[in-house]
Design a protein that fits this description.
Blueprint lengths: L2 H4 L7 H20 L4 E5 L5 E4 L1 H7 L3 H4 L13 E8 L2 E14 L2 E10 L1 H24 L13
Antiparallel strand pairs: 1-2, 1-5, 3-4, 4-5
């Protein structure tokens, strides 16, 4: 796919161009507001400038109450990190990714938060199950082998 396919052709008429830009902005706004992942924009001091509805739900507070507050978590650019969120509805583990961006002409950080609570719970359950199996095998002096009866491997 080329860049030409990604960017719509802008009409020559200025009014049509403005309307097209407004429509494009509306599409991108729709994507951010309906994104199931949390999206935040922070200034360089860590103050929250923007919160989408998913992020507000993750923090258990309305977006208007979050804007202007300092995030309170270390922001690591270019790396995925996990943060624990505790709200009135319970605890959650979120994966946080951060990139540099601009917001109203100023340098800022774009944060994406993904709820990984269920994945972490399943990983923990798998670890416990593997430990139990290892303990049982060690206690019985038995072994485990893998054989594909179709291929003989």
């Amino acid at each position: 796919m080329t860049a030409e396919n990604l960017v719509p052709n802008l009409p020559a008429d200025q009014d049509a161009t403005a309307g097209g830009l407004r429509a494009g902005e509306a599409r991108f706004t729709h994507l951010i507001y309906n994104n199931p992942d949390g999206v935040l924009v922070l200034d360089q001091s860590g103050a929250i400038l923007f919160v989408n509805p998913a992020a507000a739900a993750m923090f258990g507070r309305p977006a208007v109450a979050l804007v202007g507050q300092v995030l309170g978590f270390p922001v690591v650019l270019g790396e995925a990190s996990e943060i624990d969120l505790v709200t009135t509805t319970g605890a959650m583990v979120a994966e946080m990714r951060v990139v540099e961006t601009a917001w109203h002409g100023r340098s800022a950080h774009l944060l994406m938060l993904r709820d990984v609570t269920e994945r972490k719970r399943l990983e923990r359950a798998l670890r416990v199950s593997e430990e139990r199996l290892r303990f049982a095998l060690d206690a019985t002096s038995e072994g485990v082998w893998d054989w594909n009866i179709v291929t003989g491997d």
